[in-house]
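Hi U.,

Before I forget, here's the chain from the pilot set. I'm dumping it here mostly so it's searchable later in email.
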Amino acid sequence: MRFLTLLLLAISVIVLAFDSVVQVYTKLYVDIQSISEKKTEVYENGELVKSETKKVYTTQASYEIWVLGSGFIIFSGTHKNEEKTLIMTNYHVIEYLTNDITELKKTYTTLGFFKRENGKLEPFDLNESGYRLVVKRVDGPYLIFYWSYKRNNKLTYEVKAELLKYDKLLDVAVLCVEDVSGLEAVKLAKSVDDYNIGEPITIFGAPLGIPFQLTKGTLGQKHLDIDSDWLDMLRYDCPQSPGSSGSAIFASDGKVIGIVRGSFVNMFGATYPGQHLGISIDNVRDWLFLNGYGFVLKANE
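Structure:
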């Protein structure tokens, strides 16, 4: 019986996600610089009076790095006589667009970094010792919409979006595509309290840059406070990978109860299997209302 329930859930979410899930990415143009040391010594009358050691950086290669995450449509229609489609994702997916960042560092385990070379994407490791990554330019955000039966569109297409609003603490951001309406938006749950611990859930996103990856699991905890920066979180056991950031967390009724944020990690940065964290839909709804997006909630009823 449980297997049948999960199967039906997966089918219903797949049908919805074909139209409401998107891939979000930012382009970073970086120089990979090797690090060496140069020692300078000054002598007077044959005696050492000054010695300095400076780091020397030498550019070895330049790459286009894609910072990959996921997102989902929360509104697609007309507001104040303007057609628009709004997409929600994590702030940390687009944070390089908001800060004057000069050196690239990895901060979130669910954020994917990929090197684009000869038209192909390959995973890119930011942690290789002896090098530093200097950001020269940032471009985006970009959205990839997947092909859809409902839209009668069998081609994946890409579009540049506009960053409208973001919140670093809550880790959410709203992106906009102007002059586009009529796309399928997700249904937002009223509250996570309408669902019990053990609720079957699914995540649909683009981990590792691969579209339409669905994983299933259960809701393990609600209203979890990690510290002052991680409040009222969800804990769940759906598998996720780099690129899952910003994915919608669907409940068994097909409604979104949260957004993927991150994972529990140990002191070495390794994740604990099945220990993942999401942003509660309660916080998302409150944030949308307080930031002038109450029309999204009304359209969602």
